[in-house]
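About this split. The held-out portion is used to measure sequence recovery: a designer receives only the structure tokens and must propose an amino acid at every position. Recovery is the fraction of positions where the proposal matches the reference. Here is one held-out target exactly as it appears in the evaluation file.
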């Protein structure tokens, strides 16, 4: 692992960030807001990390997936309530507040898609 700037990943991060903000602001519920948003959020995290960290795609994919499932697990234990942040919109947006196995499936799918896109687009070795 080495720290280095990558503008391609930064651009991907910015595009996904704009999409995520649009979903959060204009779509309140349904498939796009809930499931597609979770699919995109792991791509967002992956792109943000890859914009500054040079690491093999498989390692980044695994790290992002562990992070996402970790956050989802914290939702299961109602961390946001334990911290007294249930009325804080930013905390609810970042940490989430509802555990769902559907979210974990969306994370797995999102990480898998960005991993294979990364391999094909930037021609890395898979492992």
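Reference sequence for scoring:
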């Amino acid at each position: 692992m080495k720290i280095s700037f990558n503008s391609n990943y930064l651009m991907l991060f910015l595009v996904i960030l704009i999409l995520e903000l649009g979903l959060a602001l204009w779509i309140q519920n349904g498939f796009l807001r809930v499931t597609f948003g979770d699919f995109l959020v792991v791509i967002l995290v992956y792109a943000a990390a890859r914009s500054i960290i040079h690491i093999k795609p498989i390692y980044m994919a695994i790290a992002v997936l562990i992070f996402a499932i970790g956050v989802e697990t914290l939702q299961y234990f109602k961390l946001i309530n334990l911290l007294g942040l249930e009325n804080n919109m930013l905390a609810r947006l970042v940490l989430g507040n509802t555990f769902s196995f559907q979210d974990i499936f969306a994370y797995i799918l999102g990480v898998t898609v960005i991993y294979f896109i990364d391999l094909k687009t930037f021609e890395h070795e898979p492992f």
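Annotator remark: The mean pLDDT is 90.
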